[in-house]
Design goal:
- It is built from 13 helices and 18 strands.
- It is of the alpha/beta class.
- The strands form five sheets. It has an eight-stranded mixed sheet with strand order 4-11-10-9-8-5-6-7, with helices on both faces. A four-stranded antiparallel sheet has the order 14-15-18-17.
- It has two domains: 138 residues, Aspartate Aminotransferase, domain 1, CATH 3.90.1150.10; 263 residues, Type I PLP-dependent aspartate aminotransferase-like (Major domain) (Aspartate Aminotransferase, domain 2), CATH 3.40.640.
- Helix 3 packs across helix 9, helix 4 packs parallel to helix 5 and helix 11 crosses helix 13.
Amino acid sequence: MFDVKKVREDFPILGRSVRGVPLVYLDSGATSQKPFQVLDAERHYYENSNAAVHRGAHALAEEATDAYESARETLANFVGAETSEIVFTKNATEGINLVAYAFSNATDKARHGLEVDPRFVVGPGDSIVVSEMEHHANLIPWQELCAKTGATLRWFGVSDEGRLILEPGVIDSSTKFVSVVHQSNLLGTINPVKEIMDMAHAVGALGMVDVCQSVPHMPVDVRELGADFATWSGHKMLGPTGIGILWGRNDLLNAMPPFLTGGSMIEMVNMDHSTYAPAPQRFEAGVPMVAQAVGLARACDYLTDLGMHNVFEHERELTAYTLAELAKVDGVRVIGPTDNSERGSAVSFVVEGIHPHDVGHMMDAQGVAVRVGHHCCWPTCKRFDVPATTRITTYIYNDKADIDQAIAGIKDAQAFFGTSSKVSA
């Protein structure tokens, strides 16, 4: 394991105060804080090698290109991928849309008699499968694809315990694509994605996994997911904002129509037609986010030095402690699994008689930063009949004292609003 106190020294923002009290940051599921090492790597790039990549013959352009492609290699190694399978995107949302638009574009081209890979053609009679616990980013693009093509959207439901109900028949011979979350950002549930991807492949469908909440927090090998695509964001794993990753199998990436077109993604351009570069360049139109890629690669190195198994075990311990302490507070109900089996560090809860936003504001008054709202999972909140939740998400720089401060904030909210603050025996 690692020394949390020593880790915290690497994060300058954690030394500040808010509302006149020391900051306790428990919102890493929304975005993580950045260590000096990442900030310095990005600054060093701008100060020493800043240039447009892939297109200059001068020394700075060569250095910038090397830095960018070295970052791609680092990301690939971090998740067990091939370098050519790593596409840099703006964020995970763009990665999901990239795949969704590949289906939409292929279907449109097929309607006009153009040759496309049939695996990306969908229409009436076909189905797309998601789950009831998806982030909006992994739901709305598929709603749009179905609306454009006439395909049907299906989903796996969620049990009262916050687990997926893998009901037979949701995936069947009509299914063309399955896209599910690895770890829920609201419930904390870790889903059996390999089993789901095997179900998809058994009927000839392709599959994608949203790994935004798993890659930063546990060892993830994209091959072991059993998926054809996976996507995540850099800012949730100590990296900069404005950069994400789409991983895809080489054969599929090279068979997909591009999402964005323009410079850098082309092979040959004529006035009446163009051909596109092989993946991953075919999906990286325009000047890419080089500095962010450099920063994200350094974040991967930082996490690798800590050891992702150590990161996972540290968070498991904190999650168990969080669940146990919340269970002691009368009037608090966890939304999602209440045991520590197959669940991550996102712990959402409601407090009887107090709106989640008010709970969050009271915790903020104590310096505790948590997330409130539907967490871009409105259908999941509706499933559990709650308007919103308050959510605690821990990371490498948190310890049990942070959880104690959060619990104190909840009790302050109960005292302020005159609801029960009795501690269970």
